[in-house]
Amino acid sequence: MSQDCSKLIVYFDGSCALCQAEMSYYQMQDAAGMMKFVDISVEKESLPEDLSRQEAMSSLHVRKPNGELIVGAASFVSIWQALPRLNWAARIAALPGVMPTLECAYRLFLKGRPGFSALFSALNRRRH
């Protein structure tokens, strides 16, 4: 997979309705085009050698422009850092003790993600 080394590359599970909604929000906030979003639930999307589809489906991954691949809560912080309107959240994440708390919360969320996504989908259908 050729990589755009100037952008943050976000690997996300587009088959998860909640994940899709959140990434759509981030895409709308990315007026400067600082990020590339890769829906890894689409089989035709190729992945870099250091990221398997199973790993990518299990949690959010981000490739920084310097080539570093990050996973979990730190991925969200990287996204927030790239978006001026969400930079405040990245600054809060940098406070002592916040990142371990965010990572723990994200791991708990991942355990319930299928249920949360199904609930989000059902609520979304009722609204429309």
Q: Top keywords for this entry?
A:
128 residues; alpha+beta; 12% strand; globular
Write the layout of secondary structure elements.
Elements lengths: L7 E5 L4 H13 L5 E5 L13 H6 L2 E3 L5 E3 L1 H10 L4 H7 L4 H30 L1
Parallel strand pairs: 1-2
Antiparallel strand pairs: 1-3, 3-4
Task: Kindly summarize this structure in a few lines.
The chain has helices at 17-29, 53-58, 73-82, 87-93, 98-127; strands spanning 8-12, 35-39, 61-63, 69-71. With 128 residues, the protein is of the alpha+beta class. The protein has a four-stranded mixed beta sheet, covered by helices on one side.
Describe this protein's structure.
The chain has 128 residues and is α+β, with helices and mostly antiparallel strands. 52% of the residues lie in helices and 12% in strands. Strands 2-1-3-4 form a four-stranded mixed sheet, with helices on one face. Helix 3 (73-82) packs across helix 4 (87-93).
Low-confidence stretches: none
Count of separate DSSP helical elements: 5
| Element-by-element helix/strand order | EHEHEEHHH
Largest beta sheet, briefly?
4 strands, mixed
Characterize the overall form. globular
Roughly how many Å is the radius of gyration? 15 Å
Please count the beta strands (DSSP E, at least 2 residues each): 4
**How much of the residues is beta strand, in percent?**
5-15%
Terminal CA distance: 37 Å
- What share of the residues lie within helices? 40-55%
Helix/strand/pairing category: alpha+beta
Widest β-sheet, arrangement of strands: 2-1-3-4
Average pLDDT, to the nearest integer?
89
